[in-house]
Amino acid sequence: LIQLFRPLDVLGWVYRTIRQGLIDMAEMFRLIDTDIEVKDKPGAPALIVRQPGVVFDNVVFGYDPGRTILNGLSFEVPAGSTTAIVGPSGAGKSTIGRLLFRFYDPLSGRVLVGGEDITQVTQESVRAAIGIVPQDSVLFNEDLAYNIGYGAEGADQAMIERAARDAALTPLIDRLPDRFATMVGERGLKLSGGEKQRVAIARTLVKNPPILLLDEATSALDSRTEQEILATLRRIAEGRTTIAIAHRLSTIADADNILVLDHGRLVESGTHSALLASRGLYAEMWARQANENREELPVAEVAG
Ligand code: ATP
């Protein structure tokens, strides 16, 4: 989430002000309403998503005049499929997320959600269609039900319990005498990194968005917990359109399509095996990461 918010200096302020906030983007926008650069077109209708595909159509974008970050980027994420975005640091991966969430508008080109140009509909309706599982999440000093339901207006107990089950939080909740009424946060139950991530997933599921944006959602976890969370993410991605921004390629190798970005351009795309076979930038990044992983392992394990 921090990655996606880097453009806003106000982020630091918001973060300090609401220290315990497990804030998703929509909430963040509500909080910083006056700082939003992008405005709705007068009389813009709400987006109605029937087929939740995402299209970037020849998008040119830069934060500063004279320096473009995305240079005529085009790609399509068909409804219901999973696309991963990878590439070297600074390639523009998080910028894609920011444009999709309409933090900014492209200088030229279009971003389409469900076939609609997102500049022609309300920002609120675009953001309601997209659920974000951020890198890191902070919890409120409130009970579990509140932390899961927060951000989804009108979430009732049944919706919260279903989301918790789908996020695989049930084993944790079954161990707690007060179950969903258990207080969490600084003065309550301390959750592990993986449990916090599951609360963030449940919170996204309460929104039931047709589109998911995963921002390297497992980066802070140990490898076993990461595998478990990845399995949950895979399950909740079923039937939704998913865009996963990733640094570690091992987490996205099974995506339907992988976009390889370099200097704001799409340099390669395809499945993991097709990209390895084509021996380009992806294959190079894969080899480098495999090497790094090997170096991190104890000598005996490498040998074995
Ligand atoms: P990383 O893998 O390091 O997270 P990334 O591929 O996600 O990188 P982006 O965060 O999209 O890259 O940034 C792309 C480029 O845009 C970088 O050169 C970055 O410095 C620049 N950039 C990002 N945010 C801003 C901003 N608010 N103002 C000016 N430049 C920015």
UniProtKB/TrEMBL annotation:
Localization of this protein: Cell membrane
Residue stretches making up the ABC transporter domain: 54-288
Superkingdom of this protein's organism: Bacteria
Protein name, as recorded: Metal ABC transporter permease
Organism: Erythrobacter neustonensis
